[in-house]
Design brief:
With about 325 residues, the chain is an alpha/beta fold. It folds into two domains: about 150 residues, Alpha-Beta Complex (Quinone Oxidoreductase, Chain A, domain 1), CATH 3.90.180.10; about 140 residues, NAD(P)-binding Rossmann-like Domain (Rossmann fold, 3-Layer(aba) Sandwich), CATH 3.40.50.720. About 30% of the residues lie in helices and about 25% in strands. Strands 3, 4, 5, 6, 7, 14 and 15 form a seven-stranded mixed sheet that branches. The chain has a six-stranded parallel sheet with strand order 10-9-8-11-12-13, with helices on both faces. A two-stranded antiparallel sheet has the order 1-2. Helix 2 crosses helix 11 and helix 3 crosses helix 9. The radius of gyration is 20 Å and the shape is globular. The two termini are about 20 Å apart. The structure holds NADP nicotinamide-adenine-dinucleotide phosphate. NADP nicotinamide-adenine-dinucleotide phosphate (NAP) binds next to helix 2, helix 3 and helix 4. NADP nicotinamide-adenine-dinucleotide phosphate binds next to helix 2, helix 3 and helix 4.
Amino acid sequence: MLFNAILLEKKEVTGFTCSLKNINRQQLLSQQGDTLIQVAYSSINYKDALAITNKSPVVRQWPMVPGIDGVGTVLECASGRYQKGDIVVLNGWGCGETHWGCLSQYAYLKSEWLIPLPDKLTAHQAMTIGTAGYTAGLCVERIFDFGVKPQDGMVLVTGASGGVGSIAVALLAKLGYQVTASTSKIDQAYYLRKLGAVNIIDSQSLKQSGKPLQKEHWSAVVDAVGSHTLANACAQTQYGGIVACCGLVQGMDLPATVAPFILRGVTLAGVDSVMASYDKRVTAWNLLAKHLDEEILSYVGRTITLNECVEVANKMIAGQIKGRFVVDVNKQI
Ligand SMILES: NC(=O)c1ccc[n+]([C@@H]2O[C@H](COP(=O)([O-])OP(=O)(O)OC[C@H]3O[C@@H](n4cnc5c(N)ncnc54)[C@H](OP(=O)(O)O)[C@@H]3O)[C@@H](O)[C@H]2O)c1
């Protein structure tokens, strides 16, 4: 069996390369796993973009098949956890970093990493959501569990036109929250309004260094940006509010003071999707499946082929894309 996959290689002579390769079953099964999946769709997340463009040390074993997300059909499952024909979803667990991922027609994975495709979603819709959307779901769950209600005031989403941001805006709006979307793409305001944002702000105002305490605007925040944006978001959060922090596109630094935390009781809540428990995953996915309808998902997602991943990854690193990119791994240009 020969199949297509993106392969990232790093060799002394040729350096880093990213190319579409033919892989055989034996190579794939050299990965540690117990479940062979025929992949239907993968997606491009920011981490995939970093790996594909070699912009950051995401890949820790070479060669590597990228793709932190996948949805596909179980062909063989040695653990017995899934049956042949079951449709399953993978997000994270080090795939595309230390274990071959799903930008490939087949993947060999650990069955405990997988969850069943939620009933209400198609395989394509699951990858429109992907890790970015599932992380938005985890952030919203965190805000929910904290007790923030729609009547408590405006919620802020940063990096709003990106994958995490788009799904967070749409999900929060569906749940009845008033959402302010912070974006660099003010000319794309119509896109964010269609997702349900009631207010759009230019991200430039949040990207600059700001005062430790500012006017209290937000009952809760979903931040995919980090750095000064996260510091300002904390400084603008209402007394007793929560900031769910999941991303670092502006930077990994946090140039903040303790003022919002010790003077306003603001909570900074870290959100990780990669190693989240099975129960947390299923809860977040069920929330997304229940509230994101077909119309929103087809508006947010675009479909590309394996050959188009490098171009999309470069645009994503440059902050030039909006929404989500689903990869049809079985389609050639
Ligand atoms: N914690 C986790 O488990 C987890 C899971 C998934 C993703 N993430 C992280 O979350 C972040 C967003 O992921 P994503 O998939 O949504 O990425 P994405 O689709 O590329 O979206 C990021 C958005 O952030 C804004 N942005 C881009 N570059 C920026 C910069 N230099 N400064 C300020 N804003 C910038 C842009 O939105 P606007 O133009 O609208 O401002 C962009 O569309 C990434 O850092 C990713 O690694 C973390």
